[in-house]
Amino acid sequence: MDPALPPLNAAEVRVLGSLVEKAVTTPDYYPLSLGALTNACNQLTNREPVVSFDEADVVRALDGLRRKNLASLFHGADSRVPKYKHAFTDQFLLTPAEVAILSVLMLRGPQTIGELRTRTERLHPFDHLSDVEETLQALGARQPRPLVAKLPRQPGTKESRYAQLLSGPVDTTATERALPPESATLTVRAENERLAKLEEETAALRREFAELRQQFADFRKQFE
Predict the structure, then answer these.
(1) Band of the pLDDT at 172, cuts 50, 70, 90?
(2) Do domains 1-91 and 94-179 have the same CATH topology?
(3) What is the pLDDT of residues 22-31, one digit of tens each?
(4) CATH code linked to domain 1-91
(5) 81 neighbors 90 (Cβ within 8 angstroms)
(6) Which residues pair with 111 in a beta bridge?
(7) Handedness of CA 75, 31, 91, 165 (dihedral sign)
(8) One-letter-per-residue 3-state SS of the chain
(9) pLDDT score of 60
(10) Is the pLDDT confidence value at 174 over 60?
(11) What are the tens digits of pLDDT across the range 36-88?
(12) Class for domain 94-179, per CATH?
């Protein structure tokens, strides 16, 4: 990481994390239009905290990322609207495992090794917790600047959490004030994650149907 690279603000972190996630999970619909990227930032699941960005918020974040050479405007021959892509892996030489870890940390904040293993499954499956820990250690030892840090263990918890450092040093006093979620909250989050996966699959089918319908309409015009 370039030591002169300014820290990302919260909106830039959310936009970059969303671009990195969608590049892996929905490659057929990537790069993303502004509307699709805004929806990705505002997902009700797999996001902590949940936000309600409008398109102007996303554009401002994109402008900041583009100045930092972390995002770019995509000019495709088949694109009817402007689309955006990340340049995260152009700036940093990262393994798929490291990309998955950083994406989830950007989208969901500090997490334990177990949480990271579960939440990165769609991006990159880790066979063992030790694999996650090794990846975190590699990210934390990067030079000239580490990309993740291990946080002090919170009172009443058994495991330490890890945080991304793209947005600068972590305010540990703020993280210490956070309380572990109740079991009911964890159950609801798991249900929401399953629903989110179904919603993504449904949205992908709808986009595919719309594209097929447009192709059929274009084909019919050739004979009119």
Answers:
(1) low
(2) yes
(3) 999 999 999 9
(4) 1.10.10.10
(5) no
(6) 162
(7) positive
(8) CCCCCCCCCHHHHHHHHHHHHHHHHCHHHCCEEHHHHHHHHCCCCCCCCCCCCCHHHHHHHHHHHHHCCCEEEECCCCCCCCEEEECHHHHCCCCHHHHHHHHHHHHHCCECHHHHHHHCCCCCCCCCHHHHHHHHHHHHCCCCCCCEEECCCCCCCCCCCEEECCCCCCCHHHHHHCCCCCHHHHHHHHHHHHHHHHHHHHHHHHHHHHHHHHHHHHHHHCCC
(9) 97
(10) no
(11) 999 999 999 999 999 999 999 999 999 999 999 999 998 776 767 899 999 99
(12) mainly alpha
93: left (phi over 0), alpha (psi -120 to 50) or beta: beta
How many other β-carbons are positioned within 10 Å of the β-carbon of residue 145?
12
Say what the alpha-carbon torsion angle 73, 52, 98, 93 is, to the nearest 10 degrees. 20
Closest CA to 105 of 37, 52, 163: 163
Amino acid at 223: F
Residue 208: pLDDT band by 50, 70, 90 thresholds? confident
Of these ranges, 5-9, 40-44, 208-212, the one predicted with the greatest mean pLDDT is 40-44
**pTM exceeds 0.85, yes or no:** no
The domain locations on the chain are: 1-91, 94-179, 181-224
Q: How many CA atoms lie within 13 A of 158 on its CB side?
A: 2
